[in-house]
Design goal:
GO terms for molecular function: cytoskeletal motor activity. Its main location: other. By secondary structure, this protein is of the alpha+beta class. Helix content is 31%, strand content 25%. It has 2 domains: 58-256, Chemotaxis protein chec; 263-324, SpoA-like (Surface presentation of antigens (SPOA), Roll). A 6-stranded antiparallel β-sheet has the order 1-5-6-3-2-4. A 4-stranded antiparallel β-sheet has the order 7-8-9-10, with no helix packed on it.
Length: 329
Amino acid sequence: MERILSKEEIAELLSAVRDGSLASELEEPQTPEKSPRRVNSFSLVQSKGQGGFRLPNFDILLDSFARNISFSISNRVQRAVSVLRESIRMTDFENLLLECQKHEVLAILGLDPLKRNGLLIFDAPLAFSQVEIMLGGTTELLKGKIPERPLTAIELNILRQVFHESCFELNKAFSSVEELASNLVRVETNPRLVNIVPADTDMMVATFNVKIDKVGGKMHLVMPYASLDPLREKLKSELGVTGSGGQWIGYLSTELQQIPVTVMAQLAQISLSVRDILDLRVGDILPLDVALDSPVRLLVEGKAKFSALAGLRDGKKAVRVLEQLDKRR
């Protein structure tokens, strides 16, 4: 049986509660606070951040495209042109447009039969250098002095022909894995007007260094990753080491035959001392000790490969191949 408090004990108890010397209710036990856990977002749809661009042997197609377009631009501008692949990366379409610099030229390409369109982008130095040369100018005027203005309608029409030829070269590069029929849809200078895919679409961006004479620029080939992914098995079978040996040899043979080499006709060769060379003056005659009808040697990359006869054709100097020299040389 519980003990009943007296009036004095009740009064002391109430006084203790009012003074705070006795808690009026049980305090809840405090639990140590847990540090907030860091949560990383993970997309089940997009592949960025998961190893970057992964498409086997696709770099072979890009290198083939670089060689093809270097010949195309070189023939058009009549200058020495080099195109080298710099990088392949993945980014979403929104970030790609934000990266676009002022006065870049964006060509929208149809990629039939692949789904969705792609882009071929020339930066300002590359665009202006081509226009300057094709209008009869020289790249010397553009060194460090790229115009700070958008291209005119006439200049864009000139570049439109370059983009048309680029589509043809892209089709040739893809011919070993897909009968691509790319075509130029339109040319834009404002990235906001280029809405070929949703903003979060993963894009493959291949960047090339282009050098015309002594002026360099950047070219970007942009294609949706979803459009390229169906080519994965074809890239493995047609270009990979697991594919047919004959197809691989044929592909390499075709590419090797397109490599440019330097051919030089050597009339004669003499030896002079350093003193003789220092004493040379305008008007001096050097005897070569060869007859007028003596054959000359054709050097391919510095190696003698053919014997030829020098002469004239259509008012210009020319050589006629007579025979092939030792094949082992």
